[in-house]
Each structure stands twice: as structure tokens, then as C-alpha cells.
Amino acid sequence: MLETEGLTKQFDGLTAVDNVSVTVEEGEIVGLMGPNGSGKTTFTNCVSGVHEPTAGQVMFKGTDITERAVFKNARDGIARTFQTPRVFQDLTVLENIEVPLLNTDRDLEEIEAKARSKIDAVELEHVIMQEASDLSGGQKKLLEFARNLMREPELILMDEPFAGVHPEIKKTMFDRIQALNDNGVSFIIVSHEVDSLYSISDRIVVFDQGAQIASGQPVEIQENERVVEAYLGHDITA
Ligand SMILES: Nc1ncnc2c1ncn2[C@@H]1O[C@H](COP(=O)(O)OP(=O)(O)O)[C@@H](O)[C@H]1O
Ligand SMILES: [Mg+2]
After folding, report:
1. Is CATH 3.40.50.300 the right assignment for the domain spanning 2-88+153-231?
2. pTM for the complete prediction?
3. Which of 7, 11, 192 gets mutated to test ligand 1 (max ligand atoms within 8 A of its CB)?
4. Residues with CB under 5 A from ligand 2 (ion)
5. Lower CB count within 10 Å: N or C terminus of the chain?
6. Could you write out the DSSP letters of every residue in 139-168?
7. 3-class SS at 203?
8. pLDDT tens for each residue of the chain, 238 residues long
9. Distance (Å, rounded) from C-alpha 86 to C-alpha 66?
């Protein structure tokens, strides 16, 4: 589904992502972890097209998408949620979720029906007519997630979906990810919540200082000395 080859991103001499080669198989959930500042967000930005990598390649379903813009990737099956959710604060929940399909040839009734089904899926029916600015941080994450689902993505990149959200919302998020995955959707999930990440992921990839230092089953990662070392002395809570 996805393959990065030697992916590298530098900012003014700082190598944020260093020669990373990662694959995601169809239907796989890859958990991405690593200490604060290890390049996880920059990696997802390079894959989704938010940043153009300095070197290396990104292949999606056999096509080179290295230089493809984020809006085009979104249309072509790669969705993306942010550490701090990006929603339209002044629009209602329903309007927010309709946005991705407004510039298509679909009729408005069809768009609204679809939006309502996505809202139901993330259990936001009770706030459907509220402005996004009224929602909690966790509800905004669900909203951003549901908006991404309007285009029926095949690969979803999620940056800290469980961080700082109410346990109920965390459960909804977790269940939705699993349900989508049961239907074949692939994921890269960045998370500091190690227990959640281990339980939801098929495979874990670990970054340290921009480089991939480990990849394996959650049980293998738990026992990996390099991973333990990478975490010692680092602030992993932010
Ligand atoms: N837009 C940017 N400009 C300059 N440096 C950046 C930028 N984005 C990230 N960095 C730097 O790249 C490194 C990796 O950051 P990031 O990808 O956010 O790590 P993580 O998500 O693992 O915490 C950090 O040293 C960070 O300061
Ligand atoms: Mg980050």
C-alpha cells in the first residue's frame, strides 16, 4: 500500500527525518512511536504531502507520490489527522464534515446523508448543529477524523489520536479505527499511549532522532533494548 524509500527531511541543517524506509501492507496498522522530537510528525507530513521531502521517495499503490500535494493525496485515498485537530471553528459539525465533498459533482442531499452517517459513526449526533468551536478537544479529533472519512480513504495517517481525550472518546476512536481496519483500511498511527498503540497495531516502528531504530511485533518492541535506551532520559509525555 505504502512504501517510503530513504525518506529524508532537513530543516536548515537539522535532519528531522533521516533515511527512513517503511512499508505499510494493505490492511495493516503500523504504530509509530519514538521520543519527543524524533521526527514522527515530520514523517507523516512528508508522506501526506504537507512537506516535500529533501530526499527519498514515497510510493502509494505503486505510484510515486513523493512530490504530490496534500489535497491531491486526500482525493486519491490518503487521509490525515493532526496532533492538534484542524477544524473550521465557525462552521457546525455537519457543515465541517460536508466540506470535502462540496466541490464535487454530488448533489447536496447525498452529501448531507453521507455526512450524517459519518457523524453517527463517531457518535457526534448530539452536537451535529453546534459550531466546532463549542466542542471539546477530543470531540474535535472525532470531527476531523469523520471529515476524513467522507472521501473513503484507503490509508489514514493519525498523529496522536488518543492524546488528551476523554476515555469515552478514546474508546470511540479506537473502535472506529478497528472497524475501518476490518474493512481493509490501512493506518499509520503515531502515539505516545504505548498500551493503546501496542493493542491496536499489527506492527510497531520506532524512531529516534529521525531514524528508524526498530520495527516488529509489539512484543518484540517491548523487549528491544535500543528502544528502551532511546526512551531513557527523554521526555516522552509531550
Ligand atoms: N517546520 C519545521 N521547521 C524547523 N524544524 C522543524 C519543523 N518541524 C519539525 N522540526 C524539528 O524536527 C524535529 C522533529 O520534529 P517532529 O517531527 O515534530 O517530532 P515528533 O513528532 O516525533 O515529536 C524536531 O527537532 C523539530 O524541532
Ligand atoms: Mg509530533
Report:
1. yes
2. 0.92
3. 11
4. 40-41
5. C
6. HHHHHHHHHHHTT--SEEEEESTTTT--HH
7. strand
8. 999 999 999 999 899 999 999 999 999 999 999 999 999 999 999 999 999 999 999 999 999 999 988 888 888 899 999 999 999 999 999 999 999 898 888 899 999 999 999 999 999 999 999 999 999 999 999 999 999 999 999 999 999 999 989 999 999 999 999 999 999 999 999 998 899 999 999 999 999 999 999 999 999 998 888 888 887 755 555 4
9. 23
